[in-house]
Amino acid sequence: YAGSAGIQTAALLYGGYNGSNVGNTESYNGSSWTEVNDLTTGRRACNVGGISTSAVAAGGYTTTNLANTETWNGSNWTEVNNLNTARRDLQGTAADNTAAIAAGGNTPSPGYTADTESWNGTNWTEVNNLNEGKGAFAMTGVQTAALASAGVGGPGLLALTEQWNGTNWTEVGDLNTARAALAGGGTIGSTLVFGGDPSPPSTTAITESWNGSAWTEVSDLNVAR
Is the pTM of this model over 0.90? Predict the structure, then answer.
């Protein structure tokens, strides 16, 4: 339910749900977490990404789906221009708070969306859609070269992976295990995804590695989640 940005030694975690929607933001320096300034709008199921000192948070849910977008400068969140399509459970990736992409998610109607939007630091622009509307998937890479892996859509749990080249999404090799709410990191040529819900409300420890053309199961997480 929380959004995240950064790398192993410098990360940011924001928003989420602990019985109510929260705006809490924490920064990780490689050894410990520190509470920093909250999101302007507390929410769950938001996402996009960036680095620990320059990030984008968009979408999410309070009592309704949100289009709200905020940028992080290392100290504070600032409200900026909204997504064109309000949604929750979207995924995205960003180099920093000036270059991001967001895709998929859940809207009241028609449900799971394939909408993709590109962020230039000022505005979101609608670009070409995913081939399959879905939410709660793993998205890795950068604004112009990304992977959208697994998730849940109209057909149910998905193993589908799509690759973004800056203009279009192309279906590539499926994961070995269909699931939603998984996490991941990497590039379009080398990505790792792990965990998730293969059969809600169960959880899994399964980890898979992408080499640019196929997924291979590797060592599991120690704790399924």
Answer: yes
Q: How many residues can be counted in the chain?
A: 225
| Maximum separation of any 2 CA atoms in the chain, in Å | 43
Alpha-carbon torsion, ordered 208, 211, 213, 216, to 10 deg? -30
Query: Could you report how far apart the first and last alpha carbons of the chain are, in Å?
Result: 13
Token readout for 208 is 């898979």
The model's pLDDT over 92-108, given as tens digits with 9 standing for 90+, comes to: 999 999 999 999 999 98
210: enclosing H helix or E strand: strand 207-210
Q: Which of 1, 2, 112, 107 minimizes the C-alpha distance to 55?
A: 2
Dihedral through CA 103, CA 106, CA 109, CA 110, nearest 10?
Answer: 60
Q: How far is 46 from 90, CA to CA, in rounded Å? A: 7
* Residues facing 218 on adjacent strands: 207
Q: Are 6 and 12 in contact, with CB atoms under 8 Å apart?
A: yes
| R_g over Cα of the chain | 16
Q: What digits encode the pLDDT tens for the residues 141-166? A: 999 999 999 999 988 999 999 999 99
Q: How far apart are CA 79 and CA 68, in angstroms?
A: 7
